[in-house]
């Protein structure tokens, strides 16, 4: 599976940023672990929407709707990728 088939290449850095933010939240102990994926999802959607709206064609209502849809899906995919990588690292570290 090639992740760039689903996530825009220019937004792959967002997945890495969300991973680092999630690790920071995990280490801070101020946020419960159960809320971290939700926070990362919201942050991913917000940041991806900002990027897509800043670089997209917003001259029509269909362009705006497409930009919002693209931003939401790309944000969720980036957040999902960051949580997935986190779980892969945890599972690789386990000894069975």
Task: Describe the protein's topology.
Elements: H1 12-28, H2 36-55, H3 61-93
Report on the architecture of this protein:
The chain is mainly alpha-helical and 96 residues long. It has one domain (12-84). It is 73% helix and 0% strand. The chain contains three helices and no strands. The chain has helices at 12-28, 36-55, 61-93. 20% of the residues are buried. The mean pLDDT is 92.
**What is the mean pLDDT?**
92
CA radius of gyration is 15 Å
End-to-end separation: 27 Å
What are the low-pLDDT stretches, counting only 5+ consecutive residues below 50?
Answer: none
List keywords for this structure.
single chain; 96 residues; 0% strand; elongated; mainly alpha; 3 helices
Summarize this, please?
By secondary structure, the protein is mainly α.
